[in-house]
Amino acid sequence: MTAETTELSLPSRIETVAKAANAVADFVNRSGISEEAAYGIDMAVREAVTNAVVHGNQQDEDKAVELTLKSLPEAVEITVHDHGSGFNPEEVPDPTKEENILKSSGRGIFFMRTFMDEVSWSIRPDGGTTVRMLKRR
Amino acid sequence: MAELNIAERQAGDVTVLDMSGKITIGEGSVALRTAVRRLLEEGKKRILLNLAGVGYIDSSGIGELVSSYTAINKDGGQLKLLNLTQKLQDLLTITKLLTVFDVYENEPEALNSFK
Known about the structure:
Structural class of chain B: alpha/beta
Number of domains of chain B: 1
Order of helices and strands of chain A: EHHEEHEE
Low-confidence stretches of chain A: none
Number of helices of chain B: 4
CATH superfamily of chain A: Histidine kinase-like ATPase, C-terminal domain
Radius of gyration of chain B: 13 Å
Shape of chain A: globular
Structural class of chain A: alpha+beta
CATH architecture of chain A: 2-Layer Sandwich
Mean pLDDT of chain A: 93
Radius of gyration of chain A: 15 Å
Low-confidence stretches of chain B: none
Helix content of chain A: 25-40%
Order of helices and strands of chain B: EEHEHEHEH
Strand order of the largest sheet of chain B: 1-2-3-4-5
Strand content of chain A: 25-35%
Shape of chain B: globular
CATH class of chain A: Alpha Beta
CATH topology of chain A: Heat Shock Protein 90
Oligomer: heterodimer
Strand order of the largest sheet of chain A: 1-2-3-5-4
């Protein structure tokens, strides 16, 4: 299988989430991924891009969200980069704990971790946060 | 076409919202919030969300369901869910919300539960 990479730079607004999801849908169609895996990737990408737009770039349209999709022989790798000040994912409260169940937000990272095989965050030296997600075939 | 279509009907003193489309960040979540707020302003506090046509929901949509539930409860009303798709049921299971919401698979049973 030929490795394929798609790179997108998108403005930091809510509509970007749907645009990113559309690009991912085209990408996974070409990548020959199962329907179930494609659903998980779609969910995770929407949550990652939402976080980048809303929490990372705080909807500042001068800051882009960079999305990279890579089709590898054994997996699909997705990175989402924002230009925000970063955060510690370990400090994000567990939304399934009793005291958090009725909160209206805070489930995005939980969904990313649920639907992808690997999720990790890194702070770039030049600023911004990159989340890397892997879904094995 | 709107991301989320909501059709309202009355079944006795229960307001049923037949929903189809996506409840996701932006338009879909806002449409749900607006519909529930309007019903509460009109004094309609017994609300059944028919989610049979909702094929997709994200964390923002789940959050909006929770916000609707707590807003209606606070106002002395009841919000119940009808006809969850398997995907939505799975999401409510992993978020432990299936134990919070009153969920039905058949409408007469759901309507009777308000009495």
